[in-house]
Design brief:
This protein is an alpha+beta fold. The protein has 4 domains: 3-167, Serine Threonine Protein Phosphatase 5, Tetratricopeptide repeat (Alpha Horseshoe), CATH 1.25.40.10; 204-321, SH3 type barrels (Roll), CATH 2.30.30.40; 353-444, Ubiquitin-like (UB roll); 454-511, SH3 Domains (SH3 type barrels, Roll). The protein contains 14 helices and 19 strands. Strand 10 and strand 11 (377-383) form a beta hairpin. Helix 2 packs antiparallel against helix 3 (37-49) and helix 5 (71-83) packs antiparallel against helix 6. The chain is flat, with a radius of gyration of 32 Å.
Length: 512
């Protein structure tokens, strides 16, 4: 099956999904002889929608086999394993999805044809849930604490509710992929399918085209198409990036005109020679063959680059300048990246060291470094003598929780005078500081449970009404609510219902 035939069927299948005809869409997808990673993913989603978990697992296997870096495919297969109660494998796939995020807050798949954003905090949320199923409550809590570093405003309640559940060793709801979303073929390229002349050849204009190919994996779905851009479909083409192609008309101009796309690009084009794995959030992951655009080169041999719409830092000695001007010669065959080990990573001040340096600078004079024991330990720098509101506000910002949900104390056990609150004499608190350092403990506030009100049945009460609570003389009844002055709602054993207040006697709290 040709690439164009695959594209037509792909477009026809997603159109069926839009018309709520998932059965026909699945039939069309399954008829494609050589599905790419995105089509396999779509097949898996439709099987998952039909609750055919075995078929869904097999389809996501195919998607991952075609593209081992497709984080959302790992995420979906992890959900499939979760539904099959294969928790160890589910945890492994969620971990792979998190790894594929490469320390980013999210991946937006819109550019690849999928209207979906995969959030790191949601992946970690599901990892925590699976750990809870396995009885690893400590690991579950650690994953949720890590999720706090990635969560956005829209995900605040999701993570906070999960944390509350974990602290009580209770399970919570799985984050699932929206069933209606699928990878779609590029609209512009689908539209070009209809622009054919009578010989069946696509009509072209007098312009220069840029090919962006990932043909080395035979997965043409990952080719990005832009206005006035086409892609190489040669299976032997190992190039991944930008390269000029010649005009396809005989009467074209002798000197090619520079297309708009060249003028729109920022920076100088470079080819990546070695795989680079980031160690900090401001660095960018790239692999050999990628084309990046260097915006600025620093004196420390680090370059600020842009790649796939994202900016970050990459070692400049991992790059090689590349000429992609309209007059550049077409490569006869792309030279493979060097096989030797990459050069030494340029030295940078680690982000953790920079933060520690900032704390040390602030600790001078009237600054106090406060070490906080929470579910994880951290330190803040705050002016000596600050009010409780300033102190709890800074801690709240650090742990990303509301101040009203936190309890601060000077001892591990938050009891008595050790608790720090709005009415605390802060002078006595700061008086405990030694050499500009102070230690505190912080816990999540759990509202005290009101003591249960219990009754003893004075008489036997039997009723044929299903909403009534029947009991015998001497039974213990727990009050659930007061309906009226004469009628109460309660629980006796496993039964609940309403009963007359005159049939029971309230027991003192101390006797419960």
């Amino acid at each position: 099956m040709s690439f164009l035939d695959t594209l037509r069927q792909w477009d026809e299948a997603v159109t069926c999904v839009d018309k709520k005809n998932q059965t026909e869409a699945l039939r069309i997808f399954l008829a494609i002889a050589e599905p790419n990673s995105k089509i396999y993913f779509n097949i898996g989603c439709l099987h998952l929608l039909n609750k055919d978990l075995d078929a869904a697992e097999k389809a996501f296997d195919g998607s991952i086999r075609k593209d081992e870096h497709l984080a959302v495919a790992f995420f979906q297969r992890g959900i499939t394993f979760y539904k099959k109660e294969r928790f160890e494998e589910s945890l492994g796939d969620f971990a792979n999805a998190y790894k594929a995020l490469r320390a980013n807050q999210l991946i937006d798949y819109k550019a690849l044809g999928l209207r979906y954003k995969l959030f790191a905090c949601e992946v970690l949320h599901n990892m925590a849930l699976v750990e809870a199923h396995l009885g690893n409550w400590k690991n579950a809590q650690e994953n949720l604490m890590k999720a706090r570093d990635y969560k956005t405003e829209s995900k605040l309640n999701l993570i906070d509710k999960a944390v509350q559940s974990i602290l009580r060793q209770k399970l919570f709801k799985l984050v699932e992929f929206p069933t209606s979303e699928l990878f779609r073929p590029n609209k512009n390229y689908v539209a070009e399918l209809e622009k054919k002349d009578y010989l069946g050849k696509a009509k072209v204009k007098n312009t220069i085209y840029i090919a962006i190919s990932n043909a080395s994996k035979n997965d043409y779905s990952s080719i990005a198409f832009f206005p006035q851009v086409v892609a190489s479909v040669k299976p032997q083409d190992q190039f991944s990036g930008f390269a000029p192609l010649q005009p396809q008309v005989q009467d074209g101009p002798v000197t090619p005109k520079e297309p708009e796309v060249f003028r729109a690009l920022e920076g100088k084009a470079h080819m990546v020679l070695f795989e680079f794995t980031p160690e900090t959030s401001d660095e960018l992951a790239v692999v050999p063959g990628n084309i990046v655009f260097v915006l600025q080169k620093g004196a420390d041999n680090w370059a600020s680059v842009i790649f796939n719409g994202r900016k970050g830092l990459v070692p400049y000695n991992y790059l090689q300048p590349l000429d992609i001007s309209p007059t550049s010669k077409i490569p006869e065959g792309i030279t493979p990246p060097p096989t030797h080990d990459p050069p030494m990573r340029p030295k940078r001040t680690p982000a953790t060291e920079r933060r520690l340096d900032n704390v040390k600078k602030e600790s001078k004079d009237d600054q106090c470094v406060v070490k906080i024991h929470f579910t994880f330990n951290f330190a803040i720098s705050i002016p000596m003598g600050s009010t409780y509101q300033v102190l709890i506000g800074k801690i709240s910002e650090k742990v990303k929780m509301e101040a009203t949900s936190l309890v601060l104390s000077l001892t591990p056990e938050a009891t008595g005078d050790s608790v720090i609150g709005a009415n605390t004499n802060m002078e006595s608190v700061w008086g405990r500081a030694k050499d500009g350092h102070l230690t505190m403990w912080c816990k999540i506030y759990e509202p005290p449970q009101e003591p249960q009100i219990c009754f003893t049945a004075l008489h036997t009460y039997e009723s044929s009404n299903p909403e009534d609570l029947s009991f015998e003389e001497g039974d213990k009844i727990i009050l659930l609510s007061r309906i009226t002055q004469d009628w109460l709602e309660g629980q006796c054993g496993e039964k609940t219902g309403i009963f007359p207040a005159s049939f029971v006697e309230e027991q003192p709290v101390k006797e419960q």
